[in-house]
Amino acid sequence: MRLIRPSFIPIILFLLLSHMAIGQDGNANAMAVKNKDASYISFSLNYTNDAVFMGRKDSLSAPYVFPSITYYNKTGFYTTGSFSFLTRPNESRIDLFLITAGYDFTLKRFAADLSFTKYFFNADSYNVKSQIEGDITASMVYDFNYVNIEAGAIVFFSNESRSDVFLTSGISHDFSTKNQKLQWSPTIGMYFGSQNFYEEYYINKSYGAGGQKGAGHRGGDITQPMVPSLVIEESEKFSLMAIAFSAPIWFVHKPFLAVLAPYYVIPRTPATLTTDGEVYKEDLDNTFYFTVGIAYVL
Predict the structure, then answer these.
(1) Beta strands of the chain (E only): which ranges?
(2) Has residue 1 been placed in a domain?
(3) What share of the chain is helix, strand, coil (3-state, %, to 5)?
(4) Residue 185 sits in a domain of what CATH number?
């Protein structure tokens, strides 16, 4: 049974999906601190050791510190603002600003959320999501007492007016202390979608549209400086993109919350890159990464 109630979507899942793999993470569940019928403001500071999305990442790690502020109205409407500061040596900069507006709904064991996020990436960003301009996300979770079943749909809009659709699913079980101050939620998730965002990432960053440094890793031995005709065969195909295992841990000490969220992601459907008549098969690696965060709720 989900003892820390899952109005987690604007507070946790939003940040999970806005930075990471499947979603990047790391704010704590403010609804564990505030009554769900009360409005609140939360401030959080989070850190992730790499930017991973759907099992994809750049060859250079992208560790971020990302503070955020959220206003949640008791009617269910909320807005969140955040920026991500890249902490990699010699790459220190603000890499991303984003703002989200959405509506959260909870009825007994059922919770749902609908949100819109606008992204503002730094021109030098090598984040695999750096060509995405915005998204619409719908998520829901049902607490079946022994397990929680989660599902979602996301539409990403890119710089080239191309979109990607993702479907997410997950199952988790909650362990909690009697006073509900500590909760551990082992989770397994599966993520399906297309790869237009990834093709644009390769063209605009990996192959130097603008001469970006550092990207271009995943194709292994591809070294051409710029290949505008590059095509990823799987870009329009809807397929399994990743399987993820996570075990987030929440700790509540009002008005503070803290979370540690480790992830192990197994990417699927590696890209087949075609350019100048040559074909390269991407070599995807399994990834372990983590996010840690603390929040203060007014």
Answers:
(1) 40-48, 64-72, 77-86, 93-107, 110-121, 132-143, 148-158, 163-172, 175-176, 182-184, 187-193, 231-232, 239-246, 249-253, 256-267, 272-275, 278-281, 287-297
(2) no
(3) 10, 50, 40
(4) 2.40.160.40
Q: Domain span at residue 126?
A: 8-297
In a domain, 2, yes or no: no
Sheet (strand 272-275) strand order: 231-232, 272-275, 278-281
Structural domains of the chain, count: 1
Q: How far apart are CA 93 and CA 33, in angstroms?
A: 33
Q: Please check whether residue 55 lies inside any domain of the structure.
A: yes
Amino acid identity, position 281: K
Give the predicted TM-score (pTM) of the model: 0.84
Check the CA dihedral 274-276-280-282 and report its sign.
negative
* Cβ atoms of 156 and 163 closer than 8 Å: yes
Q: 187-240, pLDDT tens digit by residue?
A: 999 999 998 888 888 887 655 544 444 444 444 444 444 445 678 877 888 999
